[in-house]
């Protein structure tokens, strides 16, 4: 019996794929950085805590990247990106598993204590739900599992990635203390990715144009700004007017609304180039 080892750097035809190699390298780079810092003693007094924050951050952002694949394919008419989604999703799972491992390591692998903490603290219980979802998705990410489950059931199961994204945002927000810029930026990106799917369904010809992507960018940026104002004024009791003012300039650095808006604008600009710029798709030969 021969076991087919995964060869993520090759495409379905078995050819080396520069795009796959680039994405694989990008997925491995943060882990390489962590190993390097661990080996050179750069991690500070509580190395496991540091590793845990970094693995959690990467798990969540890689998950957001996997959720952005479908909108990017539609906005940029970039079909080649779709086969990379599974690799990116498995990458998110790997960082999430390392994140949980880091937590257990920080408690000296006292698993009874770890389980007790997860049961007791809401943000950890929510994080655990995220690990469970990502484990189910990673375990069913092979071609064999797609065949075994059948396309429709597999797709329905893999829609749980949307819930995993929401779980990551809530877990990230709940563990943040005063600075919620990271969680609110992620919330804006998650909302953008979800709204992009809704817009696609509402669009009669299923191909939203640059104006739609522009509107989505603005809506997601507003949502991220509103989330930051609500969180900081409602829960942390900072004056709402001050947080609002910070969103109108960049004197206090880029706020979540700015980052989400810029990311959304990049997608809209790509859509514009694909529609009418030098990268515009030529109509298929023979098409009316
Ligand atoms: C049982 C599962 C999990 C446990 C026990 C756990 C635990 C933790 C802990 C203890 C922190 C640090 C809190 C602090 O610094 O005070 C943290 C932060 C974080 N976790 Fe998790 N987590 C879990 C699952 C997840 C999952 C599934 C994701 C994402 C997919 C995630 C993403 C994050 C992020 C983004 C942070 C913030 C990192 C930062 O401060 O930059 N976690 N987690």
What's the structural blueprint in terms of helices and strands?
Blueprint: H1 18-39, H2 47-76, H3 85-106, H4 111-120, H5 122-139, H6 143-149, H7 151-158, H8 160-175, H9 181-202, H10 210-235, H11 240-248, H12 256-276
Helix pairs in contact: 1-2, 1-3, 2-3, 2-8, 2-9, 2-12, 3-5, 4-5, 5-8, 6-7, 8-9, 9-10, 9-12, 10-11, 10-12
In brief:
This protein is mainly α and 288 residues long.
Task: Tell me what portion of residues adopts beta-strand conformation.
Answer: under 5%
Q: What's the structural domain tally?
A: 2
Uncertain runs: 284-288
State the helical fraction: over 70%
Radius of gyration: 21 Å
Structural class, from secondary structure content?
mainly alpha
Compute the number of helices: 12
Topology as H/E string? HHHHHHHHHHHH
Overall 3D shape: globular
Mean pLDDT over the full residue set: 91
Ligands in the model, by name, code or SMILES, are: protoporphyrin IX containing FE
- C-alpha termini separation: 52 Å
DSSP strand count: 0
- Tell me the major beta sheet: none
Provide a descriptive summary of the structure in words.
This protein is an all-alpha fold and 288 residues long. The chain has 2 domains: 18-175, no CATH class; 178-278, no CATH class. Helix content is 73%, strand content 0%. The chain has helices spanning 18-39, 47-76, 85-106, 111-120, 122-139, 143-149, 151-158, 160-175, 181-202, 210-235, 240-248, 256-276. α1 runs parallel beside α3 (85-106), α3 packs across α5 and α4 (111-120) crosses α5. It is globular and about 60 Å long. The N and C termini lie far apart (52 Å). The model is unreliable at 284-288 (pLDDT under 50). Protoporphyrin IX containing FE binds at residues 52-53, 56-57, 59-60, 63, 96, 99-100, 103, 118, 124, 127-128, 130-131, 168, 171-172, 175.
């Amino acid at each position: 019996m021969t076991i087919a080892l995964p060869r993520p750097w090759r495409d379905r035809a078995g050819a080396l794929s520069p795009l796959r190699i680039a994405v694989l390298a990008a997925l491995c780079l943060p882990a390489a950085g962590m190993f390097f810092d661990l080996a050179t003693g750069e991690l500070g007094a509580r190395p496991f805590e540091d590793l845990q924050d970094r693995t959690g951050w990467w798990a969540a952002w890689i998950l957001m990247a996997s959720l952005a694949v479908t909108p990017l394919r539609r906005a940029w008419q970039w079909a080649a990106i779709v086969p990379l989604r599974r690799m990116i999703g498995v990458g998110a799972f790997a960082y999430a598993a390392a994140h949980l491992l880091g937590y257990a390591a920080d408690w000296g692998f006292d698993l009874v204590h770890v389980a007790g903490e997860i049961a007791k603290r809401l943000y950890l219980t929510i994080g655990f739900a995220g690990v469970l979802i990502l484990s189910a998705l990673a375990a069913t990410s092979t071609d064999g599992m797609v065949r075994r489950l059948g396309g429709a059931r597999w797709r329905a199961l893999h829609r749980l990635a949307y819930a995993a994204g929401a779980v990551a945002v809530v877990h990230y927000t709940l563990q943040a203390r005063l600075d919620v810029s990271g969680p609110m930026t992620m919330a804006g990106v998650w909302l953008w990715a979800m709204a992009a799917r809704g817009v696609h369904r509402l669009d009669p010809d299923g191909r939203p144009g640059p104006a739609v992507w522009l509107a989505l960018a603005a809506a997601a940026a507003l949502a991220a700004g509103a989330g930051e104002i609500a969180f900081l004024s409602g829960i942390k009791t900072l004056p709402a007017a001050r947080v609002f003012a910070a969103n109108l300039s960049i004197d206090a650095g880029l706020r979540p609304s700015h980052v989400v808006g810029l990311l959304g604008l990049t997608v809209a600009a790509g859509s514009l180039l694909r529609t009418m710029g030098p990268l515009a798709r030529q109509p298929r030969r023979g098409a009316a």
